[in-house]
Amino acid sequence: MKDHLVFVYGTLRKGEKYSYYLNKAECLEENCTIEGQLYDTGWGYPALLLESGIVPVKGELYRVSSEQLKELDRLEDYEEYGANNLYERIITKVTTEKGEQEAIVYVMASIKDHFNKIDGNDWILRKK
């Protein structure tokens, strides 16, 4: 069975409400980043828009099985070839302490006007 690298930046991070989805996954790095902008949706989870040249988005990098990836797809309301996905699953570059790697990341299909930018691009620190 194939393994996949997944970058998580919100409610899947350690200590957050859906972190248990990754209990059996291997955390490769807790302090890594991607280029983008995080938004607070106001619904208890963030939205990510990939953009370059701004403050990096902080997150964690995991190795997951194909079955675990399917579970994440369900959580993120993602269906391959789905027209009404809440999130899209894409591959992007992740900056780690060991250099760049490519990983899956879930990005919001569309950013709404009422979403607020998260200063510092860190979902966990926004609460402090």
TrEMBL record:
Any single GO CC term annotated in Swiss-Prot or TrEMBL for this entry: cytosol
Domain annotation Gamma-glutamylcyclotransferase AIG2-like: ranges: 6-123
One Pfam family this sequence matches: GGACT
GO molecular function, a single term: gamma-glutamylaminecyclotransferase activity
Membrane-spanning intervals of the chain: none
Active site: 76 (proton acceptor)
InterPro entries given in the database record: AIG2-like_dom (IPR009288), GGACT (IPR039126), GGCT-like (IPR013024), GGCT-like_sf (IPR036568)
Sequence similarity: Belongs to the gamma-glutamylcyclotransferase family.
Protein name per the record: Gamma-glutamylcyclotransferase family protein
Organism whose genome encodes this protein: Fictibacillus arsenicus
